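Changelog-linked ticket: NA7 example.
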Amino acid sequence: MFDGQSHAVDAVVIGAGFSGLYQLYRLRELGMTTRVFEAGGDVGGTWYWNRYPGARCDSFSAQYSYSFSPELEQEWEWSETYPAQPEILRYLNHVADRFDLRREITFNTRVSSAHYDPAANRWTVTTDSGATVAATYLITAVGCLSTPNKPSFPGIDDFKGAVYHTGLWPHAGVDFSGRRVGVIGTGSTGIQAIPVIAEQAGQLYVFQRTPNFSFPARNRAVTPEEIAETKANYHELRAILRASPGGLTYGIDPQGSALEVSAEERERTFEGLWNRGGWAPLLAYTDLQINLAANNHLADFVRRKIASIVKDPATARVLTPTDHPIGTKRPPMDTNYFETYNRPNVTLVDVRNAPIEAITEKGLRTGGKEYELDAIVFATGFDAMTGPLFRIDIRGKDGMALKEKWAGGPKTYLGIQSEGFPNLFMITGPGSPSVLSNMPVSIEQHVEWISDCLKYMREHDLARIEPLHEAEEAWVAHVNEVANYTLYPLANSWYIGANIPGKPRIFMPYVGGVGNYRQKCAEVAARGYEGFALT
Ligand code: NA7
């Protein structure tokens, strides 16, 4: 039992979401002593914190789950094609119970620092409760989107109403019935929350800075036949996901260039895939993410959809994105998002040219006008990928801070390790497919790679691993090179740090594809962890 004071273990894992739970399971299998620290009051990570109305996963439920236990696969049944937050949280609780994981997790405890001592080859991990733990290995399972971004508008403390951030939603829920609510932000989160809040609120004001493309999810209940089919074919499904570009399958094989077909055929294809739901239209042609002219055909198709759904032409115009190629920001998926603007109790406020000036005692002021509100919802996103790591004072050899080393952008080898920080492993770190993929697939791949690496080190009597300088430099260059081959860098997205003032503009996830990346990681391991220094 962890006594909350001084302690020594083989590994410390930070976080008890999808990654931390599975990493703990694997470390236990290796017979390693482990302590997991979790800031939340229970397991779940993202799904513990993001309890906002409408919170739902944009991956198919059968694909958004662990594959490591065939028994778990067979006993769990998802109820909808896209799982809602409460169901995913129930799933993760079930996993924690089923594998008896909670006994090595300390909840309500945030890791404040982790310092590496080269002489002892140990990490000293300190928490906000004052506990100190020494560990040979430090594994971050902190998630990519877990540090909420709350812009500091002047006057925020003067507001007399209630203020919420979607990523820190009250567990008891919020009753907006009859209230005047303002939502700031129209990313994936705002687009999920706005239709649900609109149904409850007396009046809803949406403060939009940048219009977004969104695809109708067409979420529905899973049928008993589909459940049976999934259970019978899990093995094949997982193999497809592991080899796929995004760790997700729609069963669509992109066909040729969007520029080589007639306008009528393109329209028919887009229409069919739009009706199918989700991101299917993005898979219509092979060049939608690499050729601007091809991309613009799909963007135009969605712009016309917005014009056809939203009845007021002026509102439709403000909702129409023109500043980025479609799919280059994380594409939102919705249920009645654009339709919501036809409701009499919903008002869209354009804060692009007249930014939010201040939060006042009574509400929010923009464009010289004050909107009186009872509640303000910040759907303003996260300091992605590096934010959760920088929140911890991580120091490697010579006392070097991770934050300092990465001041010009993250530097990793394979997105798993960073030179100068021996025995520190990052699950879905920057430079790995992570947020460009169906997370559980990438998480399992990293956890298994890390666990195999630790086993290899034990078998070969090795105590320390860190990337070689040249290998890291080459990987960073490769990550940039493949990103620049795509249209992704053209958008001001959180992928590139554009949502956080002062953050370096570097494309952080690896765009080369889950299947290719997995193969690369496997080759590195097979060659005795090529590119790493093992001592
Ligand atoms: P996002 O995608 O970062 O969206 C945040 C939204 O908040 C976006 O519309 C922003 O407008 C808006 N925002 C942020 N700061 C401001 C200020 N200062 N004024 C006005 N509007 C602002 O976060 P989400 O939570 O929706 O999604 C994050 C990921 O979580 C999602 O992609 C999934 O992977 C899960 P902007 O576009 O910057 O002009």
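Closing comment: Example verified and attached. The mean pLDDT is 97. Residues 7-147+384-534 form a domain with the FAD/NAD(P)-binding domain fold (CATH 3.50.50.60).
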